[in-house]
Amino acid sequence: MLTGTLEDNLVEYIGNEDLEGANKSIMKALADKLVDEKQDFVDLLNANDIEADMSMPKYQLIELFIDNTDDKSLLVGASLLANRPNKDESDFDGDDISDDGVKNGVGVMDSYFNNVVPDEEYSYIAPMLLGPLVRGAGRLIKGRMSQKDQDRVSDSYRQVAERQMRQQAALRQRAELERRQRELEESKRRKKTNTILIVSGGVVLSLIVGIIIYKQR
Fold first, then answer.
1. Are 19 and 112 in contact (CB under 8 A)?
2. pLDDT value for 100
3. What is the mean pLDDT of each run of 10 residues along the chain (217 residues)?
4. How far is 161 from 214, CA to CA, in rounded Å?
């Protein structure tokens, strides 16, 4: 499992002609965004004329995204979101989003979901990576299978991608809950420590005052 940035992971997967691994890395990044920045995920769907709102559970938002992955505009927006650093990162800047990372993300998703094989005119993908991705997506080339088979493969891949997003969202949510629990426990521990110090300080102060009064008699 690769642990670098999404952009670096895509380069690695594409270089290894691993289209499924490349798409999975994008699905995991999008699932993380759904948990961390749900409003932005909802906005992504709304911007592409997909009705969604914050009251919807995460699994339903994932279904809406997967069901509309034939929309190139949605793929572009999804790749932008997946490649964007988290808003709470102190060095976040709109310019931090890699153009090549976004292009590669769209190219990977379009190949994975829609059987599209990039060529020299394919505007979504960085030119240096065209060759490996074409070979990696070779089994999906239109004309090598019937439309019925293409649809069957696409539906199967969508189910896999949806499952990957659901699993990652659950993992991310659990990690977030555990983080909050640790913060709560640490806050309670600090509060308890401060209370003990205050009480102890009060006792010591009372003893000192008592000693002073006693000596003054």
1. yes
2. 81
3. 79 83 94 95 96 96 96 94 74 66 88 71 49 48 50 76 94 86 77 64 56 58
4. 79
Q: How far apart are CA 146 and CA 148, in angstroms?
A: 5
pTM of the model: 0.72
**What gap in Å lies between CA 206 and CA 111, rounded to an integer?**
76
User: In this predicted structure, what is the pLDDT of residue 90?
Assistant: 43
- Of 79, 68, 130, residue with least CA distance to 101: 79
Token pair of 95 as six digits = 């310019």
For every residue of the chain, which 3-state class applies, written as one string?
CCCCCHHHHHHHHHHCCCHHHHHHHHHHHHHHHHHHCHHHHHHHHHHCCCCCCCCCCHHHHHHHHHHCCCCHHHHHHHHHHHHCCCCCCCCCCHHHCCHHHHHHHHHHHHHHHHCCCCCCCCCCCCHHHHHHHHHHCHHHCCCCCCHHHHHHHHHHHHHHHHHHHHHHHHHHHHHHHHHHHHHHHHHHHHHHHHHHHHHHHHHHHHHHHHHHHHHHC
Angstrom distance (rounded) from CA 91 to CA 86: 10
- CA of residue 174 relative to chain centroid, distance: 14
The per-residue pLDDT for 187 is 73
Classify residue 66 as left (phi > 0), alpha (psi -120 to 50) or beta.
alpha
Distance of alpha carbon 100 from alpha carbon 103, whole angstroms:
5
